Amino acid sequence: MPEFVFFKKGNKTTALEKSDVQGAVLFINQGYEKQFEEIIAPDSQHALARLADIKKEEEIAPFAWATGAAFFGVIFAIMMVVGYLFGN
Asked: pTM for the whole thing?
């Protein structure tokens, strides 16, 4: 399977095979910025779909961590209160 690199201009992202040097130069000359992600996929559509999944996971991850930490903080506080009330 080929490895794909990504170029972005505004809201448009395009996948290009990493070995396509001429295409990369063309995109850069048109004002696209090369992204650092590289993905192995059967075709450019699958590569773009996988990139979208990765970006979505990156957006969600900080909130999932904060929610988990807040949940355990509340549970810990409740356990401390219950321990104090029933420990004496």
From this structure: 0.67
